[in-house]
Design a protein that fits this description.
- The structure is a single chain.
- The protein has about 170 residues and is mostly beta strands.
- It has one domain (about 1-160): Beta Complex (Metal Binding Protein, Guanine Nucleotide Exchange Factor, Chain A).
- The protein is about 10% helix and about 25% strand.
- It has 2 helices and 11 strands.
- The strands form 3 sheets. It has a 5-stranded antiparallel sheet, with no helix packed on it.
- It is globular and about 40 Å long.
- Belongs to the Gfa family.
């Protein structure tokens, strides 16, 4: 599925092909929550990096978060994700991690194309542990079926294939 995403002010945008466009996984970790705009969670989908086309790249900025800010500065490590956002309006667009170089991770909130709507029972919530999730976010209890204290044992691709939502690329 071809997706078009953009920032709020319109100076940056992107196009990408996604085989996994259903926005089902909500991440409550502090990095996603704070970098994405302060809401209770963020929703990533997955795109094929080689199909990513950027527009207004001169306005794009990047940010790489510190994994654990509670450790001394000299022991801090950067998160693998490089987050891309508009330097003018601050809208977050997508993330990229060299560890999974084949993929990029558009934020569902940046996508202008209509996305498939997940069934409520298919939504997964992750990083619900007390260290990650903020106390005011309304979340169900951890059940390890759809609500996880850390990362689930499934990837975006695996979930889409299991639920017959994976779009084969021609």
């Amino acid at each position: 599925m071809e997706l078009h995403g953009s920032c709020h002010c319109g100076k940056t945008s992107f196009d990408v092909i996604s085989q996994t466009p259903v926005p089902f996984m909500h991440c409550y970790c502090s990095i996603c929550r704070k970098c994405q705009g302060g809401g209770g969670y963020v929703v990533n989908i997955m795109g094929l990096y080689k199909t990513l086309k950027l527009h207004g790249e001169e306005y794009m900025k990047t940010y790489q978060a510190v994994l654990d800010k509670s450790v001394p500065v000299e022991q801090q490590e950067l998160c693998g994700n490089i987050r891309y956002f508009c330097g003018e309006c601050g809208s977050h667009l997508f993330a990229y991690d060299k560890q999974w170089a084949e993929w990029c991770y558009p934020y569902a909130s940046a996508i202008d194309t209509d996305l498939p709507v997940p069934k409520p029972e298919d939504i997964h919530r992750l990083m619900l542990n007390k260290k990650s999730k903020c106390n005011w976010a309304d979340t169900p209890p951890v059940d390890n079926k759809r609500n996880f204290s850390e990362y689930p044992n499934t990837s975006l691709e695996d979930w889409h294939k299991k639920n017959h939502q994976f779009i084969e690329r021609k």
